[in-house]
Design brief:
By secondary structure, this protein is of the alpha/beta class. The chain is 33% helix and 23% strand. The chain is built from 13 helices and 14 strands. Strands 6, 7, 8, 9, 10, 11, 12, 13 and 14 form a nine-stranded mixed β-sheet that branches. A three-stranded mixed β-sheet has the order 3-4-5. Helix 3 (122-135) crosses helix 13 and helix 6 packs parallel to helix 7 (229-237). The longest helix has 18 residues, at 337-354. Residues 85-100 have low confidence and may be disordered. Bound molecules: adenosine-5'-diphosphate.
Length: 366
């Protein structure tokens, strides 16, 4: 069967008109983060957040238009808040980084996943976000910078030690199609982690520079929890295209999420948005939904702070069991509602780092 091409997708999307602005959504530069992988297509439609709720029919029309292309089996379209022009450069990781940050050759964008404190589900989110990006057709790496409590070996079900062919660079480990590096591969689990600031920094630098990551579209960095000096230094040292902040509803009430936002602002890293984890409770027996911790706070907080809201993940035992068993839900239950939400969050994140999809330029004769 013939490959589906980006041009075909953009042509199909040109038939979708934004009725408020009387033009098609491609010419209006609303399409971003387009990925075509085999017969699967994903993209975001950037909209003014105020119009978001009214635009669901447009999103569906866009999916339908692409679904009509022969050979397309699945389409995921998400609405994302469009970015303010100066805040987000279109080629974040490609520009020479300021302040002596070393770029990682071959890696298009590095995105940090951070939290105001531990235990909010930052690692679980990192893993499922990485798998969601992969499911959307991207080449993905995962760097466990949570050096104090590395959880990637367990969550990604990887054992053993990374090999080095030349004695200088390490080969990343790999599972579920994702390249992974973690301090947990290099030291035994019961080794006390008495890392001091400078050691932590050099460990991170090494895991970025001295690992043969190869060609990646995106490298997800699971940051250590908190917003102290060590985290600040790390955020400063890595050429980050952006950061995702994971929060629970209580955490938002306690303003920890705000500390995370301020930390990245201090080091000029764009905050791509906030994910509300453990947002509401799903009863495993009857499927009933309970808003234990006044759900919805993250969306309001994000709006108040001018941040994008990336999505909400419920508190569900299936998420805990799968991530703690090394079978993250996006990989092990791709048809579940939760997996879908993670893939949508991944699409939003990617659209923000990949920038608008310009399509083929048109020649206009006036
Ligand atoms: P952090 O990296 O912030 O310390 P983890 O990702 O390790 O947090 O999560 C802490 C615990 O909570 C883990 O046992 C994890 O499986 C569980 N967990 C995380 N998110 C959810 C969720 N949405 N529903 C249920 N359990 C979750």
């Amino acid at each position: 069967m013939a490959q589906v091409t980006e041009t075909q997708v953009l042509d199909a999307l040109r038939t979708v008109i934004d009725s408020d602005r009387q033009a098609d959504i491609v010419s209006l530069n609303m399409i971003s983060g387009l990925v075509v992988k085999d017969s699967n297509v994903g993209f975001s439609i950037e909209v003014d957040p105020k119009r978001g709720p009214q635009l669901e029919p447009m999103r569906q029309a866009a999916e339908k238009a692409v679904q009509g292309i022969p050979g397309v089996t699945s389409v995921t379209a998400v609405l994302t808040a469009h970015r303010e022009a100066p805040a987000a450069p279109s080629k974040p990781a490609a520009a020479p980084a300021a302040g002596g940050k070393a770029l990682v050759p071959g890696v298009r964008a590095i995105v940090a996943v951070a939290s105001g404190k531990g235990g909010v589900g930052k690692s679980t989110t990192s893993v499922n976000l990485a798998l969601g990006l992969k499911a959307n057709g991207l080449r993905v790496g995962l760097l466990d910078a949570d050096i104090y409590g590395p959880s990637m070996p367990r969550m990604m079900a990887i054992t053993g030690k990374p090999a080095s062919a030349d004695g200088k660079t390490l080969q990343p480990m790999e599972n579920y199609g994702i390249k992974v590096m973690s301090m947990g591969f290099l030291v035994a689990e019961d080794t006390p982690m008495i890392w001091r600031g400078p050691m932590v920094q050099s460990a991170l630098q090494q895991m970025l520079r001295d690992v043969a990551w190869g060609e990646l579209d995106i490298l997800v960095v699971d940051m250590p929890p908190g917003t102290g000096d060590a985290q600040l230094t790390m955020a400063q040292q890595v050429p980050l295209a952006g950061a995702v902040i994971v929060s629970t509803p209580q955490d938002i009430a306690l303003l920890d999420a705000r500390k995370g936002l301020n930390m990245f602002r201090r080091v000029d890293v764009p905050v791509l948005g906030i994910v509300e984890n453990m947002s509401y409770f799903c009863c495993p027996n009857c499927g009933h939904r309970t808003d234990i911790f006044s759900h919805g706070g993250a969306r309001r907080e994000a709006e108040a702070l001018g941040m994008d809201f990336l999505g909400e993940i419920p508190l569900d035992i299936a998420i805990r069991e799968t991530s703690d068993d090394g079978q993250p839900i996006v990989m092990s239950r791709p048809d579940s509602e939760h997996a879908k939400v993670y893939r949508e969050i991944a699409a939003r994140v990617w659209s923000k780092v990949a920038g608008p999809q310009r399509g083929t330029p048109k020649i206009v004769i006036e």
